[in-house]
Design a protein that fits this description.
heterodimer, A: alpha+beta, Sufe protein. Chain: A, 44% helix, B: 415 residues, alpha/beta, Aspartate Aminotransferase, domain 1, seven-stranded mixed β-sheet, 15 helices
Chain lengths: 154, 415
């Protein structure tokens, strides 16, 4: 692969949208009296996402995260807290499965505003060692919805 | 012994011995700066291992036939090569393990459980690789009354000798187990001083030579060290083989760790008696091909000369210090006076993972994360890890210059 193509991939990965999400997430923090929460850790690099959710009936009404890590892990967490609002747990989990599939290079058949937004993470398929960064927050979501307090990227 | 190695240190010539250094990463020359994690292999090692499998392979210490005798001879010759490499008094003091981690676990079980007494403790430092920490935590938690203490690391990244003296003062430390060279800070610890202080306090000493043995000549007799561990794959040899040196008197007194074939004297259904060291600690079929590879690796570095390698690497360290400190926004971890070719750093505003992805696209391999030294990163307030460049005997100044240039580029890219 030529040098410009490599640089293009880097620019695709670190898109302006992703970097803005990582640096200025809309929903950073911790929900007081959250109905579900979990912490996801990548023990290899120290990335951490602490997710807190409010569920009313079968609807996620609020989601926030705090944590530390690379731009990909933090941008993915920021996206998550945006997109799961108003979703049912199973709809939210389905978004996480979509992220995992996109990271393997499988693009979803249907399109929707949410999927288009998630698609900024799809470029990690070209960076196999970064897939766990993109999926960490979504693993924390699965854990929180399952009532598990801690999970790991490993 | 390979005779093709030039006597003078010629890095261009040396690089030709390493086939992988001629390969490219997405069309770019490979700049391999992760030798501290695992080093690349010279043709001499690759060929020796292939030759052993093609012409001299059978199980060792078993068959009364020619091929097994040849393989056994090669295996014991490797032990002899390690003995000379460390200047151990006898080949029986060299035990083959799976890696340095295996060496620590062996000592933690055999010496720790078998010879330390309740009330005694093990003393490690804050800058240990997890391999020289976790086995001792497990020993402490085994309910035998054995404690665990920690020697502080100074802000400059050196072992705090005053704190060492304080921790040794009550005479309860049975074993001091510390690194000979930090895999994060590059700090070379004052081994002779540590060993003298520990012995005066009645403690044995184990050194983690995983990094040090690659970069400097080690003389276990001159050091008077009790145990010394290193691993083959960081010394340009294969994975799957590590070394534990132990003083003969200690090894003879230590109970076995793994039980099985090869480590016994007589076996009945009821009980067994155990062979003497080193066989006592080498249960099961050993890493036969890997021992041949380790032998070739030792021959390779010995032919170049550890002093010549050390001199080359000192030049690289000086160059890296001068070059990397010029990179805006870069802060190095540790500032030890005596350091080897390992540089961990933080680049202002760029996460280590993002940085290593950026460098990878330029063909540069570095390690990002906590380098199996999580407590040390916590000590320096870097829970998110650091980025590490580590050198081998094939590293060039041009590669360090290229790294520095790409670090500056990365800082602009992520600004």
């Amino acid at each position: 692969m030529s040098a410009p193509a490599d640089f293009q991939e880097l620019q695709d990965l670190y898109s302006k949208v992703l970097r803005d999400l990582a640096r200025n997430p809309a929903h950073r923090g911790r929900l007081e009296n959250a109905t579900a929460s979990a912490r996801g850790d990548n023990p290899m690099c120290g990335d951490r996402v602490e997710l807190s959710l409010n569920l009313v009936g079968e609807t996620i009404t609020d989601a926030m995260f705090q944590g530390r890590g690379c731009e990909i892990s933090q941008a993915s967490a920021a996206l998550l807290t945006e997109l799961v609002r108003g979703k049912s747990p199973s709809e939210a989990r389905a978004l996480g499965e979509t992220v995992a599939r996109m990271a393997r290079g499988e693009m979803p058949d249907a399109t929707s505003p949410e999927l288009e937004r998630l698609a900024i993470l799809s470029v990690v398929q070209k960076f196999p060692s970064r897939v766990k960064c993109a999926t960490l927050a979504w693993r924390a979501l699965d854990a929180a919805l399952a009532g598990v307090k801690e999970t790991s990227s490993e | 012994m390979d005779t093709n190695v030039a006597p003078a240190f010629d890095v261009t010539r040396i690089r030709q011995d390493f086939p992988i250094l001629a390969t490219t990463v997405r069309g770019k020359p490979l700049v391999f700066l992760d030798s501290g994690a695992s080093a690349q292999k010279p043709r001499q090692v690759i060929q020796a291992m292939t030759r052993a499998m093609e012409t001299a392979y059978a199980n060792v210490h078993r068959g009364a036939y020619h091929l097994s005798e040849v393989a056994t001879e090669a295996h014991e010759a490797a032990r002899g090569a390690v003995q000379r490499f460390l200047n151990a008094a006898e080949p029986e003091e060299i035990i083959f393990t799976g890696n340095a981690t295996g060496s620590f676990n062996l000592v933690a079980h055999s010496f720790g459980r078998g010879m330390l007494k309740p009330g005694q403790c093990v003393l490690v430092s804050e800058m240990e690789h997890h391999a020289n920490l976790v086995p001792w935590q497990m020993l402490r938690d085994a309910g035998l009354g054995i404690g665990l203490r920690f020697v502080r690391v100074t802000d400059s990244g050196e072992l705090d000798l005053e704190d060492l003296a304080a921790k040794l003062a009550d005479g309860k430390v049975g074993l001091v187990s510390v690194t000979h060279m930090s895999n994060v800070l590059g700090s070379v610890t004052p081994a002779a001083t540590i060993i003298r202080m520990a012995h005066e306090a009645g403690a044995r000493v184990m050194l983690d030579g995983s990094q040090a043995a690659v970069h400097r000549a080690v003389d276990v007799q001159a050091l008077d060290v009790d145990f010394y561990a290193f691993t083959g794959h960081k010394l340009y040899g294969p994975t799957g083989i590590g070394v534990l040196y132990g003083k003969r008197a200690l090894l003879d007194a230590m109970p076995p760790f793994f039980g099985g074939g090869d480590m016994i004297e007589t076996v009945t259904l009821e009980r067994s008696t155990f062979a003497a060291a080193p066989a006592r600690f080498e249960a099961g079929t050993p890493a036969i091909i890997e021992a041949v590879g380790l032998h070739a690796a030792i021959d390779y570095v010995s032919a170049i000369g550890m002093e010549a390698i050390e001199a080359h690497e000192r030049g690289l360290v000086d160059h890296a210090m001068a070059t990397l400190t010029q990179v805006e926004g870069l802060s190095l971890l540790g500032a030890a006076q005596d350091r080897g070719g390992v540089f961990a750093f933080a680049l202002d505003g760029v996460h280590p993972h993002d940085l290593s992805t950026y460098l990878d696209r330029a063909g540069i391999c570095v390690r990002a994360g906590r380098h199996c030294a999580e407590p040390l990163h916590a000590r320096f307030g870097l829970e998110g890890g650091s980025t590490r460049a580590s050198f081998g005997l094939y590293t060039t100044r041009e590669e360090i210059d290229f790294l520095a240039q790409k670090l500056s580029d990365a800082r602009r890219f992520f600004a």
